[in-house]
Every structure is written in C-alpha cells, then in structure tokens.
Design a protein that fits this description.
With about 230 residues, this protein is of the alpha/beta class. It has 2 domains: about 140 residues, Rossmann fold; about 80 residues. It is built from 11 helices and 6 strands. It has a 6-stranded parallel sheet with strand order 3-2-1-4-5-6, sandwiched between helices. α10 links the parallel β4 and β5. The radius of gyration is 18 Å and the shape is globular. It starts with a strand and ends in a 7-residue tail after the last helix.
C-alpha cells in the first residue's frame, strides 16, 4: 500500500449513523406542526441549520456537536410552532452517539491494515470515546471537532491529524462518508480520499472525484491491495 497511515472518519464510516432517529423526530415535528405539508420543510430546515451552525462554529465561536444539535432543533421547533423539548427529543440521538453499531466490514479491514490509524471526527470527545469502548476499539490517535474547536471540512482537524502522525498530506489517505466534510475537506488539504459510498450516491458533477469511490471497506481493501477480506 502506498500510504503510511489512514485518517478515518467515525460516524457513518466505521459505525452506523443516526439517520433513522433524526427522521423519526422530523416526522413527529412535521405531524404536530400547524404549517401545511410541514415535514419536508422541517427536514430541509433542520439540515440547513445544522450545516450553517457547524460552518460558523470555530475558534471563539465554537459550539459542541450536542449544543448544535439541540440549538438547531430548538429553532426548528420554534419556526414550525411545535411545543416539544429539544433536549428530550435528542436523547435517543445522544445515546446512539455513545454506543453506535459498527459496520460488519470494519473489524476485518482494521485487522488486515498494518499501518497507523488516526480517527478524525466531527463529534464531541466523550461521545466518540464512549463509542470506541462500546465497540471494543482502542484508537490511540484521535482528533475531534471539540478538541480542535472546528468542524470538517475546515483544515484544523486534518492538520491536527497529520501533526499527531508526524506525516505530510501525501503520506496519508482519508476515509469518510461525507462529500462535504470528508471528500471536500481532505481534498482541500491536499490529502487523497476514499469515499465510503454505501448507498451508491452519484457524485456531483462539479465535485473533484475522490481518489477512491467504494461501497465499503471490502472494496477499499481491494483498491489498496492489503489482502482479501474474510480470508
């Protein structure tokens, strides 16, 4: 393998996302809102707010992922006139962050890898450490948005990971599932990127193609030439 180390996104890449929990909240808010046909507008507005709040949250303006989750949902509830507690609605999401389910192709990949790994995640430190314990993983090199006071695709997290590894951008491959945070973020730092595209989503025509576009870690292993998975 040409790379001396891998940077790994965590949620959505190594472990399953909280999409079904988010969607459950969206449907609940949409059903209770007096706004006509509210559900698709709730969905769009919440993702818009989450994205803009993360984009603005860096340096002195940083807010944790939990704070942004609750704050953005609270604003959605107010805009769509739904009298629910955003903290209570987010409880199941936070529980999932602490103990997410790993994708089954991850452990075999990690066993065959043979190079250092650094986790690079847009998440609060306590949550990802809890998630690592829940999956019996020990990643000594960890970079979080909370630790860097910034969110991918900003360069702070990637720069911190390279610093921990003592390597340059050309030495590593970043692996992640988000086009914006992972693909665009890594490419902006001159880092090759493998897009874990489990849903077979089409790439945007305006987007610079990722170095690898793969359906999962079995396929990535084949691309990297690190051995046959499951053998």
């Amino acid at each position: 393998m040409k790379y001396r180390a891998l940077l790994l996104d965590f949620y959505g890449t190594l472990v399953k996302e909280d999409d079904y929990l988010v969607e459950r909240i969206i449907l609940q808010v949409g059903a209770l809102s007096p706004v006509e046909d509210a559900t698709p507008h709730v969905r769009r507005r919440w993702w818009q707010l989450m994205g803009s709040m993360c984009y603005e949250a860096h340096g002195d303006r940083f807010a944790s992922q939990r704070e942004i989750e609750v704050s953005s949902l609270g604003q959605v509830l107010a805009e769509f006139r739904v009298d629910l507690d955003p903290f209570e609605l987010c409880a199941d999401i936070f529980a999932n962050w602490e103990a997410p389910v790993a994708y089954p192709d991850v452990d075999p990949f990690l066993r065959h890898l043979g190079v250092p790994v650094c986790i690079v995640s847009n998440i609060d430190e306590a949550d990802v450490r809890s998630a690592m314990r829940a999956n019996n993983w020990d990643f000594p090199l960890l970079v979080t948005s909370e630790g860097c006071r910034a969110y991918k695709p900003r360069p702070e997290l990637f720069d911190a990971a390279l610093g921990l590894l003592g390597m340059s951008a050309g030495d590593v491959l970043h692996v992640g599932d988000s086009v914006t945070a992972d693909v665009n973020g890594a490419q902006g730092c001159g880092i090759d990127v493998a897009w874990i595209n489990r849903r077979g989503r089409p790439a945007l025509q305006s987007q610079l193609p990722p170095t690898h576009n793969v359906a999962g870690f079995d396929e990535l292993a084949a691309h990297l030439g690190i051995g046959t998975m499951g053998v």
